[in-house]
Amino acid sequence: MTLGEITCPSGVLVIIDPGYMRFWSGRRDPVPPLEEFTDPKTRARIASTADYFIAGKDAAAVARLADFQSFAFIYDLPSDGVETIAGKIARLASENGLDAHLEREARRIPHRERAQRAAERGGGDFVMEGPWVGVVGMVPNTPLTVRGRRQDYGGNIGERWAEVSVDASRSSVELSTQVGYVAVDYGLILLGDADALGSWRHFEPLDGLYDVAFWGAAAEAASGDLAAPPLPDGWGWRDIGEAEAKQRMQQVRSWLSPDPPMGRLALELRPHTHFYRVMEQIRTGPPEVGMLALEGAMLLGLSTSWGDGLFPIWVDRDKTGAVVAIRLELGSEKRRQLMEGVWARAQAAGQ
Predict the structure, then answer these.
(1) What is the number of other CB atoms lying within 10 angstroms of the CB of residue 157?
(2) Mean pLDDT across 186-210
(3) Assign residue 87 a region: left if phi > 0, alpha if psi is -120 to 50, beta otherwise?
(4) Which of 57, 260, 298, 331 lies at a C-alpha separation of 20 to 30 Å from 200?
């Protein structure tokens, strides 16, 4: 199934959960997400993060032995973890007669630069405040067709994405290599040009407008009492200003208390950002895909159909080493078994 076309003018394709685009620093220094934590000790630990690398002529070999992040770079390491990591590197180097040690970067490494480093080494992944971000370089600056292959996994799983691929060439494939993973916590994957992502707006609305949405077991009752119109994925209000959005949020919260009804109700404020534009298309699927034009590039976001997890990234190359296709392995027998287990536990909990 053809899902759309993307473009990658920089030649560096980033594969990321768009829910984490709130952390993307572009070419600026990364800023730790201190606002998400209230505990002083946790905030101090996060504020102490710095970037490191394994130095020495055998750095790459020791990085492989240590099973660290891709290559010899160790990003976002808190100060209380430095001694442990440095000790592990020193021990592995000593035990194997290798030359390697841990050094601190002279500065914080922006995410765009991390992506470039991975691209120049044949593709891979890097850490960005926790989640793994995938990168593939040498991507041609032409429209690239994105295709998806669905498969019926039977049982309680049904039909889901087995693979999503980005076609870069019609050349014959001579070599297929897994270059890394993309970590997903929001059930979504975004394919985007590394330079274009620097202009992404995650919180600030592009048009000054917001939506307020709610859904869940108690949502229909709330919609009747609050005269909230239906939305593609629940009920709420669309295209409203900031003041009204805050008022509507408070209305729903007040309806829930002090004696909330039985059942769950989720409430969400949705500023009209780049994330919103992609999500609006995904919500109104099938095939749960959203396109976004940004800074001369075309980006594509999609639902994994499996929820969260670590998804392998494969690169097919021709005999010259040029990229033929980039493939995201979404479905597998192991993932099917995990999902069946989740379903069984949910059924047991509901009894």
Answers:
(1) 20
(2) 97
(3) alpha
(4) 331
Show the 3-state SS of the chain: CEEEEECCCCCCEEEECHHHHHHCCCCCCCCCCHHHCCCHHHHHHHHCCEEEEEECCCHHHHHHHHCCCCCCEEEEECHHHHHHHHHHHHHHHHHCCCCCEEEECCCCCCHHHHHHHHHHCCCEEEECCCCEEEEECCCCCCCEEEEEEEEECCCCCCEEEEEEEEECCCCCCCEEEEEEEEEECCCEEEEEECCHHHHCCCCCCCCCCEEEEEECCCHHHHHHHHCCCEECCEEEEEEECHHHHHHHHHHHHHHHCCCCCCCCCEEEEEECCHHHHHHHHHHCCCCCEEEEEECCEEEEEEECCCCCEEEEEEEEECCCCCEEEEEEECCCHHHHHHHHHHHHHHHHHHC
Closest CA to 154 of 347, 343, 346, 322: 343
List, for residues 36-54, the tens digit of each pLDDT value: 889 999 999 999 999 999 9
The maximal CA–CA distance of the chain, rounded, in angstroms, is 72
Range 238-272 burial, b when 16+ CB lie within 10 A, else e: eebeeeebeebbebbeebeeeeeeeeebebeebbb
* Cα 250 to Cα 269: distance, rounded to the nearest angstrom: 11
> By the 8 A CB rule, do 87 and 54 touch?
no
Each residue's pLDDT tens digit, 276-298:
999 999 998 889 999 999 999 99
Phi, psi of 42 (to 5 degrees): -65, -45
pTM: predicted TM-score of the whole model, two decimal places: 0.93
Q: pLDDT per residue over 307-348, tens digit each?
A: 999 999 999 999 999 999 999 999 999 999 999 998 888 888
Strand partners, 144: 6
Whether 62 shows a pLDDT value over 90: the answer reads: yes
